[in-house]
Amino acid sequence: MTAQLATVTAPAPRRWRPRPGAVVGAVMLGAVLLLTAVVPLLPGFDPMGQDLRAALLPPFTDPAHPLGTDALGRDLLSRIALASAVTLGMTLLIVAMNAVIGTTIGILAGYFGGRLEALVTLLSNVTLAMPVVLLLIAICAVLRPSAGLTILVLGCTWWVGYARVTRNVAASLRRQDFVVSPLTQGADTLWVLTRHIVPNVRPHTLIIAATDIATIVLITSSLEYLGLGVQPPVPSWGSMIFDGQRHLGADPWLSLLPGIVMLLAVGGAQFLSQQFTAETRGGLLRKGGMR
C-alpha cells in the first residue's frame, strides 16, 4: 500500500519544452551559423577578390555571385560569411574574457570581503563611469585601431555585471555550513572555492553571458561602423553597412544584406538566451537556489 501511494504521489519528472520564441531563435541563429560554416566550403568563396567589370551586381542575377557584388566587384555572399565569422568570433571571445574576469573578481571579493570587496566596488563604479566608445576613441588616438584592440578593451571593461552578481552569491555562501565545515576540518581555501563556491556561481555567470552575446554583437558592430574595430580589407557587419551607405539610394542591398544577417544573429541569440535564462533559473529554484 505504501509503495502504491509513493508511486501515485511521486512527482513526474519535468520535461523540457522549448518556448516558441526559442524555436524561432534557434532557426534564426542556425541560419547565420550555417552561412558562416558552409559558404567558406563552396568553390567560389573569395571574399577579397576584386572584379571591377562585375561591380554592383544585384542579388540573384549572376550564379557566380548569388547575393551580388559590392563597388569593387567582391562577392557579397563570401564577404558576409567571413564578416559573420569575424564578428561572432570576436563576440564569443569578449564574452568569455568578461565572464572569467568578472566571475573571478566577484568570487574573491564576496568570499573574502573587507578591503578587497570595497576595492572591487570602487573599481566597478569607475569602470561603469567610463563610456566604452569614448574610451576606445581615446586609445585609438594613441594606438592603431584593430580587432585585437577592440577585444582587449571590451574584454576588460564589460565584467562589472558578472562581478556584482557573483560577489553577492559568494558573500551569501561564505558563512553557510557546507562552506565553513570543510575549513574547520583542514581543507584549504582554494579547495572550498572550487568545490563549493564556483559550482553555485556558475549558473548565474552563464545567465549573464547568454544575455550579453546579443549586446556585445551590437557594440562591436557599432564600433566597426565607426572604424574602431576590424580594419579593411577584412569585412565585418558594421564596416559593410558603413561602406554600403554610399550606394544606399541605388543599391540598398549593400547595407541591407549584412544588416539582415546581423538582425538574425542578434534576434536569435536574444530569443535563445531568454529560454536558457528561464530554464537555468527554474533549475536554481527547484534546487533551493544553492547546493
Automatic annotation (TrEMBL):
GO terms for biological process: transmembrane transport. Keywords: Cell membrane, Membrane, Transmembrane, Transmembrane helix, Transport. The chain crosses the membrane at residues 21-42, 80-112, 119-139, 145-165, 205-228, 253-272. One of its GO terms (cellular component) is plasma membrane. The keyword Cell membrane applies. It comes from the Bacteria. It holds the Pfam family OppC_N. Residues 88-273 form the ABC transmembrane type-1 domain. Gene3D superfamilies: MetI-like. Its main location: membrane. The keyword Transmembrane helix applies. It is found in: Cell membrane. It is a multi-pass membrane protein. InterPro entries: BP-dependent_transpt_permease, MetI-like, MetI-like_sf, OppC_N. Belongs to the binding-protein-dependent transport system permease family. This is Peptide ABC transporter permease.
